[in-house]
Amino acid sequence: MDKIIVLIGPPGAGKGTQARLLNEREGILQISTGDIFRAMRSADTPLAREVQAVMASGNLISDELTFKVVRDRTSRPDAQGTYILDGYPRTLVQAEQLESLAEEQDKEIVAVEVDVPREDLLKRLTGRRTCPVCGEIYNIYSKPPKVEGRCDEHPDAELEHRKDDREDTVATRLATYDELTAPLLDHYRKTDRLKVVDGTGDLEAIYSRIEKAIK
Ligand code: AMP
User: Which of 52, 97, 206, 212 could form an SS bridge with 41, CB 3.0 to 4.6 Å?
Assistant: First the structure.
């Protein structure tokens, strides 16, 4: 049976980096709601402005809009097989919505918690830089680009420091995770669909733990 692989972890846990690696190496489609919302923000519409404001505050977009986005994206032809959800679900309501979507799509949910101690998260978030062209994620401490401030693949593009990775917003995002998202771990644990993976250490070591967990 095809799977929906759900990556759960606080901001800065490395979900995006690992999902991108799984995509590159295993060819598994990566769907990141954060990336979709970031792309939506740039339009000049009332909805785009609303998305922009909510993201800048570190809070969550509504469950309704988020579900719509996920339903649309996962109904495209390239999402017929196994896919990874990176950053979704983030609330119990979203988890319930995903249960019905999985049933409709005849897929099995596997949840992977990427477990990282709180002390490590801040450094990862403040050091994170992303390429505006391809979305590649760098870190000035642990995964620097070859040339400072430039994407290895797109040297013309200057790497961005996400606005919501600044310290004041990070506190809100971590609190939101504890309050709304962490309860999902129990939801998947109780139904025996949760794998916990140590998210510390070397990128490759984390990758092989995740790969093993989803096999
Ligand atoms: P991320 O890149 O996953 O950290 O997401 C960045 C921001 O996008 C979050 O702080 C939220 O404002 C919004 N977002 C992403 N995924 C979701 C979701 N599943 N539910 C609600 N808001 C989301």
Answer: 52
60 Cβ inside 6 Å of ligand 1:
yes
Q: Is residue 7 part of a domain?
A: yes
The answer, yes or no, to whether any atom of ligand 1 lies below 6 A from the CB of 110, is no
Ligand 1 center to 58 CA (angstroms): 8
**Does residue 33's CB lie within 6 angstroms of at least one atom of ligand 1?**
yes
Q: CA angle, corner 86, sides to 156 and 113, nearest 5?
A: 130
What is the count of structural domains for the chain?
A: 1
CATH code for the domain in which residue 70 is found: 3.40.50.300
pLDDT at 163: 87
Domain assignment of residue 149, yes or no: no
Q: What does the pLDDT look like over 180-211, one tens digit per residue? A: 999 999 999 999 999 999 999 999 999 999 99
pTM, two decimal places? 0.91
Strand, coil or helix: 34: helix
Q: How far apart are the first and last CA of the chain?
A: 12
